[in-house]
Amino acid sequence: MTASPLVRRTALALLAVVIGVAIGGCAELERQGQIFTAPLPPTRPAGPRTDNRSTVQHKELVAQFGGEYEAPGAEHYLDGILAKLASASDTPGQPTYKVTILNTPVVNAFALPSGNLYVTRGLLALAGDASEAAAVMAHEIAHVSLRHSALRAEREREAAVISQAAAVIQNRQKGDEVRSSQRLSVASFSRAQELDADAAGVRVIARAGFDPYGASRFLTALGRSTDLRAALYGKKKSLDFDITSTHPSTPDRITKAVAAAREIGAPGIGVADRSGYLEAIKGVAFGDDPMEGYVRDRKFTHPRLRFAFTAPEGFLLENSNEAVFGVREADNEALRLDSVRLPSDENLEAYVGSGWVDGLLPSSVRKMDINGLPAVIAVARAGEWNFRLAVIRSGEFLYRLIFAARKLSDEADALFMESIRSFRRLGPDETTDARPLRIAVAVAAQGDTIETMAARMVVPNRPVEHFMLLNGLSAGDALTAGEHYKIVTE
């Protein structure tokens, strides 16, 4: 969570943000991606570069995705894959690509015509072997070599011109129909681009000697990752996009990726190099960067801003660039924690009543002390929803903690207040002990099961599901004694 001011929100808009937790995905591989609403400063500045990664464009782009993550072993391994892809490329004259690993758990990858190729450490954790990583990178390079960005921009400009003309020369209803038709044309064109990049990527990785089925395996993992996040935050299934979506659904892409691989050969061909890949990513950070705040069970800790708080029993927490979100799985309850800067002489009560949130009950506003920090608490209501608010001053920031519930019962209110009172400043020793979770590799012993291996995982929630996701397993699958599996440890 960054300390950036947020625009004024109504209570209903706040509710939508609290409950509508973002679903993760890959920017080009899948539209179901987290949107970074504010840039983060690089947390691990890169050293001097002699290649095109020293450009302003590169620096600005890296800053938007959490900074560059330094993992020399993983970067060297991925650059080795790129060298093989270059020798098998459909366009031999394309630039020599170099990998930059981005410091974010969001699953994402993209390439630029300059020769910069970016993958997130979240993607490295999700990919299961070298062929899956190769498929992602080949897909992104295909977007560049096929000039998809330029073609998409041109088609969108044409769509804008046609829709504007339709609005002028035809009646409003007809104009809406033409605009809708043109949007479908743009969306169809974009879906075709994605499928073209998938097919091109499959061909290239196969010519480079990799398993062509790596693309479909990674897309399967991506869909499962999206579904797991959806399940964690109360969605019945992953978010579906309508016909105007610019990307096809993951199942459709999996089917076509498998078909493209079958044109090359039956399963079992090509190199996957799972062991080499796992060795390369061993030790890479997993999940939140602890200096930007991290979740452990129901507790959220932010070492850089030096505070911690604990959510009520049953809440699942998610840290994002904008705020900390939480939902209770079985109940209509949610929470949000964010921060804003405020002059030290600003009155807290005046701030709470300034229109920051609609539906405020003025009679509910009262001052209190929370672990030595000045605070104001209040209640707001909007329709059938009730909000318990707390604004806490700590240093130069105001921390805004909001609980939403359909029915704010005495029991729920007591739990919310207990959580509000858990907010506290961290001591010096606590801020120096922030350690990220990391990818480790464990060897399955005779008799090990998914459950026994998952018991070694250190993740905020659902270790069994995360273990299966990271290792491409399904419930009931048997582990192979002596095989290497990804786990998450401190």
From TrEMBL:
<keyword id="KW-0378">Hydrolase</keyword>
<dbReference type="GO" id="GO:0046872">
    <property type="term" value="F:metal ion binding"/>
</dbReference>
<dbReference type="GO" id="GO:0016020">
    <property type="term" value="C:membrane"/>
</dbReference>
<keyword id="KW-0482">Metalloprotease</keyword>
<dbReference type="GO" id="GO:0004222">
    <property type="term" value="F:metalloendopeptidase activity"/>
</dbReference>
<dbReference type="InterPro" id="IPR051156">
    <property type="entry name" value="Mito/Outer_Membr_Metalloprot"/>
</dbReference>
<dbReference type="InterPro" id="IPR001915">
    <property type="entry name" value="Peptidase_M48"/>
</dbReference>
<dbReference type="GO" id="GO:0051603">
    <property type="term" value="P:proteolysis involved in protein catabolic process"/>
</dbReference>
<protein>
    <submittedName>
        <fullName>Zn-dependent protease</fullName>
    </submittedName>
</protein>
<keyword id="KW-0479">Metal-binding</keyword>
<keyword id="KW-0862">Zinc</keyword>
<dbReference type="Pfam" id="PF01435">
    <property type="entry name" value="Peptidase_M48"/>
</dbReference>
<feature type="domain" description="Peptidase M48">
    <location>
        <begin position="75"/>
        <end position="257"/>
    </location>
</feature>
<keyword id="KW-0645">Protease</keyword>
